[in-house]
Amino acid sequence: MRDSGRPVYLGVDVGSVSTNLVLLDAVEPRPCIVWKAYLRTQGAPLTALKNGLELLHDAGAWEICGVGTTGSGRELAGVVLGADVVKNEITAHACAALAIDSGVSTILEIGGQDSKLIILRDGVVVDFAMNTVCAAGTGSFLDQQAFRLGVPIEDLGELALRSRNPVRIAGRCTVFAESDMVHKQQLGVDTADIVAGLCAAMVRNFLGSLAKGKELRPTVFFQGGVAANAGMRRAFEEALGQPVFVPEHYDVMGAVGIALLVREALGGKAVPTRFAGLERVLDSQVASQSYECTGCPNSCEICEVWRDGIFLASWGARCGRQGRTDQTS
Amino acid sequence: MKITFPHLGNLYIAAESLLKGLGHEPVTPPPTSRRTLELGSYHSPDEVCLPFKISLGNMLEGLAQGADGVLMIGGWGPCRLGYYAEIQRLILKAFGKQVEFITLEVPRGRWGEYLGRFRTLTASTDLRTFWQGARLSWVKLKAVEELELHAVSAQPREKNEGTVRPYLRRQLELLRTAQTVDEVQEICDAASRGFRELQAHDAVRPLRLGLVGEIYTVLEPFANLRLEERLGSLGVEVVRTISLVEWVRNHIFKKAVGLYSLAPLRRLAAGYLRGFIGGHGLESVARSVALARQNLDGIVHILPLSCMPEIVARAILPRISEDHGIPVLSLIVDEHTAEAGFQTRLEAFVDLVQRRVERFEGQRQARLSGS
Which residue of B has its CA nearest to A129? Predict the structure, then answer.
């Protein structure tokens, strides 16, 4: 049989800024996270994924009963791992929050490069909004401003909480926000007040662009990497006039959700996982390449994934063409 | 003249026949690609909407292939598209392109000017050739739409994944080269059987989502990131509310003789929107109400960034959604639309609709067994 370790489901969330992995206990009926990792993607999703799997390998003996991938790199990660379930991050985030509290009605999620608002009623997603075009109101922007203010990103939240008189910062656009902040700095305003003002501006931007016309009922969850920032949480609570809950695994909720979805899909059924195997993925060389196809005047941008010289999958062909004629086997 | 024209979905198939009938040589621009968009954006004002940029890119690529004339549609009313032809003409002129720019629009009183323009277009043909070309073009336009509708219904039911769309592309290629009306009919008949064979007979009822929005982004797959195909591969049957055949019938034939009336749309939109606001704004609202009444599972609304009529519609759709209990997804496209975010929204919306349908079905079953 397979390697006899603790039976678990693996959830992987490959986002633009972070790549997260969690292991969900396969036996325990209540959702039980036995291991998790939060890594920076740094523009190289395959490397981040491999690093994550190495950590997982070293963390103990596992019997992986199923794998799911989510996040903007879900297709790529799904092909490399041999995922059983590949799902979008909105469904995954909702699923994770519902597993913790079936009464959750609003999910605020702010990640590295996008932010989402998910509205649920009676345990079902009924509406959502997602911002991907504008960088204002995302983790990357906070990261940038923390760097500019010379404050480590981890300390930004605590600093905001110390503010007594938050200043008003324009939050509509990163460019305006930045020049506003420089201006306030030059006036000699306390850094804590600027950071608190920045949090309030981001919350205004989030609610103004995503929550327009939507009713944000309790229970409200706040998840994604930015939920680590206590200043953001307080700014949300003040703007909404109601408590905002940050779940324990707030930073890896997408991965938790997809692991739960794998359990839902495979659990109790005698379906074997399509997982390629930990050793196989770690010991092989996965390479991706992109090029402009010249097969017809459409000039599609094709992206291909290869493992040890074997073609795995490709994307982007509008004609539906898969693979090349010169593939080795 | 060698005449080029902007792409709009598969319109080129009918446009080629029409131009040939008019005694011109059609120069169909290469399929819209990233290069087209880059070219068009470079020469466009920054704030105009996506249709302007792509169509200008098409024209430039067509001219590069040797065309010396451009055919474009115009119009009047609050939608900016009506004025695009004129701005594009000026841009090409400033660019130093010596081209004949022919704008087709519904005349507004000034019949003389319109006929003059029409005469440049029909100068080099006899009535018989013109009639044959126009008829073939109209038949092809209808045939293209018929094939597309077959594909939309067949894709979510296909036996082997990824077979319907390539089949459609092959049939459209045949249609393009067809010379006679009979030939077109034969292709349609064969394709109708062909599409049936690609479908599984025991396929489950797919989710049905209505598609509304601005006509260009609804019909041009490059602009909408192949929305219909994406939804099809997620197992969704798309219900179209915009038809190019209907558009030509209403806006070219009927409007020219004053037979086109907005009254049916106004009646549908009653309580939400009082009348014409330009472009397809009124239509998006009216059709959404109609789709809700047909008990569809959801509505997908698509618009280019900064499109005024559709922004009005977008603000109204949440109320229709609430009143009729139908989920609505509004998608805005622009040159920078990231495919990953677009696909995520679609998948999440399909999940949302699927869970809703399952829940309703569950409640219905419970009611039936309870009583």
Answer: B345
| Sequence letter at residue B91 | I
Write down the pLDDT at residue A136. Answer: 64
Helix (H, G, I), strand (E, B) or coil at A213: coil
Of residues A172 and A21, more confidently modeled: A21
Check residue A310 and give its pLDDT. 83
Cα-Cα-Cα-Cα dihedral of B112, B114, B118, B119, to 10°? 20
Domain spanning A6-94+254-283: which CATH class is it, in words? alpha beta
C-alpha to C-alpha distance for A284 and A220, rounded to whole angstroms: 43
Cα(A173)–Cα(A134) distance, rounded to whole angstroms?
8
* Omega of the bond leading into A219 within 30 degrees of 0 (cis): yes
User: Quick check: A127 and B327 CB within 8 A?
Assistant: yes
pLDDT in tens, A237-262: 999 999 999 999 999 999 999 999 99
Chain A hits for B345, Cβ within 8 Å: 90, 128, 130
Question: Which residue among B34, B336, B352 sits closest to A126, beta carbon to beta carbon?
Answer: B352
Q: Which of A194-208, B62-76, B98-112 has the lowest mean pLDDT?
A: B98-112
The pLDDT of A75-79, averaged and rounded, is: 91
HSE, side-chain direction, 13 A CA sphere, residue B174 = 18
The amino acid at A261: L
- B155: its two tokens: 């894709």
Query: Has this prediction a pTM greater than 0.80?
Result: yes
Which pLDDT belongs to residue A134? 66
Helix (H, G, I), strand (E, B) or coil at B139: helix
- Structural fold of domain A102-247: Nucleotidyltransferase; domain 5 (3.30.420)
Stretch 155-174 of chain B: residues touching chain A, C-beta under 8 Å: 162, 165-166, 169
pLDDT tens, position by position, A13-72: 998 888 999 999 988 888 899 999 999 888 888 899 999 999 999 998 889 999 999 998
Instruction: Identify the closest residue of chain B to A75 by CA–CA distance.
Output: B340
End-to-end CA distance of chain B: 74
- Asked whether the beta carbons of residue A320 and residue B162 sit closer than 8 angstroms, the reply is yes
> How many other β-carbons are positioned within 10 Å of the β-carbon of residue A209?
18
Nearest CB to A90: which of B169, B221, B348?
Answer: B348
- Tell if the CB–CB gap between A125 and B348 is shorter than 8 Å: yes
Give chain A positions within 8 Å (CB) of B64: none
CA distance A84 to A78: 8
**pLDDT higher than 80, residue A319:** no
The boundaries of every CATH 3.30.420.40 domain in chain A are 6-94+254-283, 102-247
Smallest CA–CA distance, residue A186 to chain B, in Å, is 34
> At B363, is the secondary structure helix, strand, or coil?
helix
Answer whether residue B58 shows pLDDT above 90.
Answer: yes
**Among chain A residues, CA nearest to B33:** A298
Nearest CA in chain B to A113: B341
Specify the pairing of strand B298-304 against strand B328-333: parallel
